[in-house]
Amino acid sequence: MSCIRFNTPAQRKQMKAMAPAMVTAEQAESLHPAPRVTDSKITRLRLLATHSNPKIRESVASSYNTPVDLFAALAADDDEGVRACVARNETAPCDVLRSLVDDPSERVRGFLALNFYVPADSMAQLSVDHSETVRSLVQWKSDVATA
Prior knowledge:
single chain; mainly alpha; 61% helix; extended
């Protein structure tokens, strides 16, 4: 028995008529709005930013709602994963992203190289990084941006 399915023209017409309509990203966002950011959410982020578990601090560093002052503290975290999450967060302040250019971790600098919100002076510094991987990521991002 074959697993190939042969639909009749009438079946194909019916499937097309029953297919769900595609919505744009804006329409999907309006249909499913994100909950608003409350003072208690910010308080929770501040509390979790000092948690002993680095994975929990990573979640704070990855949040689009993290307060600016927390980014600076998280960028100086002892854990490489926390700093990497700051480096790839598009809402992190430019000064905080600049502070990660000389991070000892290739992983952190690599995520920084991929963040489209990193200032040009920092990207120039990353383009001559001692790590071939970081330099390659800078070049790849440049190629993507010009394509």
